[in-house]
Amino acid sequence: MRIGVRRKAAADRRDADIHFGAWLPDGDQITDASASVEPEGLGLDAVQLFDDIVKVWLSGGEPGECYTVNVVATTEQGRIKEVCFQVQVTEC
Questions:
Q1: Which of 37, 65, 79, 90 is surrounded by the most beta carbons within 10 Å?
Q2: Is this structure's pTM higher than 0.90?
């Protein structure tokens, strides 16, 4: 599921929070999360898990380029949810 476009300057190091709460049924929780970026060039510095939120830290990128970030969350009960968003990198 695509969740929109975010903008960042090439010099920025920013976080993006993905909220999975509306997707999770009562009694289930996220136990693992991963992320990937395509094409190469945008830094994926860290993926953190906070209850029903996955936080992805991004840096760098080439001004004028658009990158796709894919985030996959896995739950305690075996559910898997993939979402993606685009990052448009600007000069400043």
A1: 37
A2: yes
DSSP 37-81: EESTTEEEEEEEEETTEEEEEEEE--TT-EEEEEEEEEETTS-EE
91: left (phi over 0), alpha (psi -120 to 50) or beta: alpha
CA angle in degrees (0–180, nearest 5) for 32-40-74: 10
For 18-48, write each residue's pLDDT tens digit.
999 999 999 999 999 999 999 999 999 999 9
Return the closest-CA partner of residue 4 out of 83, 91, 85, 89: 85
Phi, psi of 50 (to 5 degrees): -130, 95
Distances (CA, A) of 6 to 52, 68, 82: 20, 10, 17
Beta bridge partners of 89: 8
